Amino acid sequence: MTPEIPDSVPAEQPPYTIEQILSGIVMGLIVLITFGHVLARYFTSQSFAATEEFSIALLIVLSFLGSSAAFAFDRHIRVDFFMRKLPPGLHAFADWLSFAVTASLFAFIAFYAGKLTWDQYRFEETSPALGVPQWWYTVWMPVLAVALVLRLVITRLRRQSPPPGGNARGDARAAQ
Q1: DSSP-derived 3-state class of residue 126
Q2: Measured between alpha carbons, how far is 49 from 52 in angstroms, rounded to an integer?
Q3: Where would I find the H helices in 45-139?
Q4: What is this structure's pTM?
Q5: d(Cα 64, Cα 57) in Å, to the nearest integer?
Q6: What backbone torsions phi and psi does residue 75 show, to the nearest 5 degrees?
Q7: pLDDT in tens, 27-81
Q8: Exposed/middle/buried for residue 97 (C-beta within 10 Å: 0-12, 13-18, 19+)
Q9: Could you count the other beta carbons within 10 Å of the beta carbon of residue 118?
Q10: pLDDT tens digits for range 111-149
Q11: What gap in Å lies between CA 22 and CA 6, rounded to an integer?
């Protein structure tokens, strides 16, 4: 006789997405850099200005990674109350409109952040604390914005259309 598995044990955890793994790494780096800054200030009474440059750049990277993870799991911010009130035809239209506006916004960010990065490279702009090329920090904005647009498109292609009940996410929690 084989023992039964209780209902409370989850079947299998889904694997982490690349965004979640990178977000964990970036958050760990921010913690280490900030902790190093605190230690340096405590023991030497001197500011470690380079940590602020790295932390700000990593926070921007973390923002893009978090946005991409939210879109990967269809958990981005939206006005779900109004979406549930729409008839199925308008619901599908509003869902596509949301996708188009969001993808356009991040494509816009990618384009202009790319121009900014190129200008910083071309004019040899340097960072204030370390004097390293400024584009080392800003190059991640267009790269991650393009990656986010790709994530949006991939998620959109994989996702099934929402059910007629108006449940945009298609899971049991959203219906409650």
Answers
A1: strand
A2: 6
A3: 50-72, 80-85, 88-122, 135-138
A4: 0.76
A5: 11
A6: -120, 20
A7: 999 999 999 888 888 899 887 777 888 899 999 999 999 999 988 887 877 777 8
A8: exposed
A9: 14
A10: 999 999 999 999 999 998 888 999 999 999 999 999 999
A11: 34
